[in-house]
Specification:
457 residues; alpha/beta; Aspartate Aminotransferase, domain 2; 7-stranded mixed beta sheet; 5-stranded antiparallel beta sheet
Length: 457
């Protein structure tokens, strides 16, 4: 390891901006990208990453950024964790690929056993491997139909489940994601999520009596959707792309009760919320609910492509040839996942709880000073800040949100948005108290400079 890399790993305390952004090399590469890369990608700011360690990313011009995105909640163990890198190196020297669809190999079998043991509940589980969250959801979608022989499904407004046609059919996040792609898979009904800050029923928790859940049985099942024809309810324990929305504790419990009552499968999309991000392996554990099927990806392999659909053994009853994936469960990705899970269990889930609490305290402190911070919500290191123009009317401040992201980037802090007007904070689970403090300091500066509405409330 070079001295330069050692310095980046050990002594980096604050972002370093050596050039205007984007720098000359970054600008050149971005122009080449525009010529050859699909315009469908959504690049929020002109970062051209070159190398990274932990929470620190260096671009091609030598500028160093504090990353509170973790590659969209993917690098759970931080960028290039040495134990994950070593696992990748060792596996790549033994076996790169054989396809678990047609052959057996150790790393896939061991990982399947480990994942099956992590799921809440006492029953046996089985695992299907894919390459991504979308593939994990797609597999769950197909398995639910195969097992139940039912064609209808329930999903939620604000949900993001992926961009393949089945997963996209379940998605109800933004119209641009569906524009010109109709028709979608039929038989999916979207209903309001438990977004208490903006209740679709105009009610307040807990006086609402969980109307958003009871409406399913009292109205939906009585009028347009026979429950005996519903295969599954697809739900994110915490909505990710929809705005990092944390529902009330009873939401999942009541939703799960309805599913059990009518023989409907409860499918938890843990692609963004799972793998330790909330301080537990799966976010649904905070709600005391055991799903029938779980979809995981993102943080599962610390940056290598891997997705998994985990289901009760009695549910995963499809026959050979019903579904497969050539690259799903690649041996190198599986080995990276095993190293990742070991790190999560040893220390990183507890650190997610500790630093998540520290981050929430800091953001709520800022909420007391900035009128534009309407809501701060989250569990562990899955934290959202919703920006508003007016706290009474809750007018969305999407333009301020976008400007704050840009301002933070110029100051060396990487953030991303979600929903229409929410900022998400999803750093690597290796984040330190010092890095949380730096993030809060830069974020405060960015908010103040963009909104220019400093108010002591």
């Amino acid at each position: 390891m070079s001295l330069r890399k050692q310095k980046m790993e050990v002594t980096m305390k604050y972002p370093v901006m050596k050039t205007a952004l984007p720098g000359p090399l970054a600008s050149q590469l971005i122009q080449t990208d525009k010529r050859y890369v699909s315009p469908s990608y959504t690049r929020v700011y002109p970062l051209v990453a070159d190398k990274a360690r932990g929470l620190w990313i260096e671009d091609v011009d030598g500028n160093v950024f504090l990353d509170f995105t973790a590659g969209i909640a993917v690098c759970a163990t931080g960028h290039c964790h040495p134990r994950v890198v070593n696992a990748i190196k060792e596996q790549s020297e033994r076996l790169l690929h054989m396809s678990g669809t047609d052959f057996y190999y150790t790393s896939q079998i061991v990982l399947a056993e480990k994942l099956a043991s992590l799921v809440p509940g006492n029953g046996e589980n089985k695992v299907f491997f894919g390459n991504s969250g979308a593939e994990a959801v797609e597999a769950a979608f197909k398995l639910a139909r195969f097992h139940t022989r039912r064609e209808l499904n329930i999903a939620f407004f604000g949900a993001f489940h992926g961009r393949t046609m089945g997963a996209l059919s379940l998605t109800a996040s933004r119209t641009i994601q569906k524009k010109h792609y109709h028709p979608f898979v039929p038989g999916i009904t979207h209903i309001p999520y438990a977004y208490c800050y903006r209740c679709k029923y105009g009610l307040c928790y807990p006086a609402c009596g969980l109307e958003c859940v009871h409406w399913i049985e009292e109205t939906l099942f009585r009028t347009v959707m026979p429950p005996e024809e519903v295969a599954a309810i697809f739900v994110e324990p915490i909505q990710g792309e929809g705005g990092y929305i944390v529902p009330p504790l009873e939401f999942h419990r009541e939703l799960s009760r309805i599913a059990r009552t009518h023989g409907i499968l409860y499918v938890a999309d843990e692609v963004q919320s799972g793998m330790g991000r909330t301080g537990k392996m799966f976010a649904l554990e905070h709600f005391g609910v055991t799903p029938d099927i779980i979809a995981v990806a993102k943080g599962i392999a610390s940056g290598l492509p891997l997705g998994a659909m985990i289901a009760r053994a009695d549910i995963m009853d499809w026959e050979a040839g019903s579904h497969a994936s050539t690259f799903g469960g690649n041996p190198v990705s599986c080995q990276a996942a095993l190293a990742t899970i070991q790190l999560l269990e040893e220390e990183l889930m507890s650190n997610a709880t500790l630093q998540g609490e520290r981050l929430m305290v800091g953001l709520k402190r800022l909420q007391n000073s900035f009128e534009c911070i309407g809501d701060v919500r989250g569990i562990g290191l899955m934290v959202g800040v919703e920006l508003v123009k007016n706290r009474d009317t809750k007018e969305r401040a999407g333009d301020w949100r976008n400007s704050i992201i840009q301002k933070a980037f110029q100051k060396g802090l990487l953030l991303l948005g979600c929903g229409e007007n929410t900022l998400r904070f999803c750093p690597a689970l290796t984040v330190s108290a010092e890095e949380v403090a730096v993030c809060l300091s830069i974020f405060e500066e960015a908010v103040q400079e963009v909104t220019k509405r400093w108010t002591v409330l």
